[in-house]
Amino acid sequence: MTRKSRRLILIAACGAVLALALGLILSAMSGSIVFFRSPTEVAAQTVAPGTRFRLGGLVKDGSLQRGPDQTVDFAVTDTNATIAVQYRGLLPDLFREGQGVVAEGTLLPGGLFRADTVLAKHDESYMPREVADALKAQGRWQEGKGLVDKPAAAAPEAQTVAGDKTLGQRSER
Amino acid sequence: MLIEVGHFALALALALSLVQAVMPVWAARSGDQALRAVATPAALGAFACILFSFGALTYAHVMSDFSVLNVIENSHTAKPFLYKISGVWGNHEGSMLLWVLILALFGALVAVSRESVPPTLRANTLAVQGLITFVFVLFIITTSNPFTRVSPAPVEGNDLNPLLQDFGLAVHPPLLYVGYVGFSITFAFAIAALIDGRIDAVWARAVRPWTLIAWSFLTLGIAMGSYWAYYELGWGGWWFWDPVENASLMPWLAGTALLHSTVVMEKRDALKVWTVLLAILTFSLSLLGTFIVRSGVLTSVHTFATDPTRGVFILAILILFIGGSLTLFAWRAPMLRQGGIFAPISREGALVMNNLFLAAGCATVFVGTLYPLLLEMLTAEKISVGPPFFNYTFVPLAIPLLLIVPFGQTLAWKRGDVHAATQRLFAALAAALVVGLAVTALTWGGPMMAPVGIGLSAYLVIGSAMEIVSRARGYGGNRARGAAIWRRAAGLPRSAWGTAMAHAGVGVVVLGIAAQGWATEGLKTLKPGESLASGPYVATLDRVGPRTGENYAETTAFLTIRNAGGDFVGTVETGKRFYPSRKMTVTESGLLTIGASQVYASLGEVLPEGAIGLRLYYKPLVLLIWLGAVVMALGGAISLTDRRMRVGAPARARAKPVPPGMAPAE
Description:
Low-confidence stretches of chain B: 299-306, 647-666
Oligomer: heterodimer
Largest interface: A-B, 63 and 81 residues
Low-confidence stretches of chain A: 148-173
Radius of gyration of chain A: 22 Å
Largest sheet of chain A: 5 strands, mixed, barrel
Structural class of chain B: alpha+beta
């Protein structure tokens, strides 16, 4: 085998593996990424039923209802629109009415959101980033102050966040 | 007072690391040998100063000195002793201090190690290491000072986040950091080689032990973090493809590739430029991981908002080191003498394939982790890239890689013979096929991929064992019999044992992962006396009651686990812990270990009438996922004791004593 053909084989192998990786990434991008939607966007019917997405906002006060067999119903709001959510499973420890939440699942044709994952950060002062941004757009969140008209419910203090940086997003779960 | 001295020691370390960074470079210009030798005491001094500084902070935490802001924010008098210590690195400032402590430790180890590294290479390496230390100490002093005082001091602290009050999280950061930061040495060696314009087998031999140490610790650190997430977060999952996890996986993948490419470089004097690039990339990915976790750019709204200087500073560090090193690489790499080209069917050919697949896998993780950030910056569209993406992209790249593993071990250097290798692997291939088919037949109608994984794992474990067996037995006319086999096996190089063990460890991990295909999950509202089944086990709720710990009050559900036949297997307790200091509730899951399998109970809502929500998982062979990682790290440690690592490069027979940090982790 000549030096040239050895080099060619090496280059061909590199090309093939890189092409495989690229192909996998591109096809996965089209199928398996999940978009984030606010209740306002969902209410405006920009999301087709059956599409998987993440819904983020605040758990509406007084909306939490426990059904039989560990089913829970609650509503997610961004103060502008409200979406009813159904979930079966254990809620995170910090799931509370009036607090930020991110739910992942699909929209049923009737407008009910069926969640299979509910995320709420472990730290009481945490607001999921998407939720904060959505609320910011509604003028209800101020940088460094948190929820503007709910100081008692969620007032993020710089100091209490210190511990959670070590953890990152994983601890949402 | 001690706090101020600790702060001062940190400032001193800043100065010393600058000396360490500048002097060797200056010496190279002026040709002053004495000046170059300054790097060694400077590195030792910087380490001593940072160690003192770290000790001062630890003392403040242990003594609950609430005049220090860092202690107020993360400690409490009622906190158990272990967590008073681990609280030192359970926060941003302290963990950065641990980071530079390990950085300086590695610098000091290079300074004192008696490896026969050419003096210029050693001096330049120390200079690069000094520069990294300087920049990070500067970062701590200017943006993340752990020694800030508060006056008047409060009587009580805010306590450490209860999720971090756990043994797993006490040991996870130090292990992970030794891994992350250990790759700074290979990075420093690579930059030094680029400055020198010379790279050869001696370089590869000098780098290899450091790579092995860093890799072994990183493996343990990732496994520990994964196990912690598994039992502490109550979701029963062992890997979430979360950015913080990916941040540690990327340097691991690149580091694994580096580990293998240095072998090729050492043995065959090839893949030089690629190895240097890998060394740069591995540490760059470690820095990126630090950036992702420390800046909070992917995780939390607050970090940038409350203190944007930190994120910007780390970003600047990132640009300086990654941009700088890649520029240097682009400029100097063409000057490095190219290594030889070799036959595709050979051990080095297989190692190139290993590097290709690892690099490609690392690239997919990189894209999946950073793409959402990029997209949001460009289009303001928010997406989440979750497990489906990574399962779809990473797994197809991992499977061919695992298939190559035993072949690579079996093929000869220079020119391999696929036919002979297949013959030697016949037992492993046959066993894999039989096991895979048998499992498929036994579990017909179950998950499809799991039997494939089991077969793959049998192939890896048996293939690795066969490699040792066939080398001990010898080939052709040189066959040994009886006791001679054992003697020969004992005489095999430690690196051969280490390699086989690490590869078998991969097989054990694969077995643990594949077995999760049969994991089951049950969810139910239970009253006392009622039962919930999951897999072959049934949990009965005996009672729900309160109990107290050192700094928490818990509502505990007491469960009895029986098997399908109704026989008693064990008891499990799962509870909701309330920490009054932080007014925070944390679910503590209950685990019952049966062999390598576990029954996993997680408590949900406790209803007023004494009923509870309960999630019960059956996780077959789940412990193998982490035990396999321990086996891998053990393999790394065994390789580290190989004679080749200890004896100096060009025929210098004087055996080098193993420096303290090089002792195996276990």
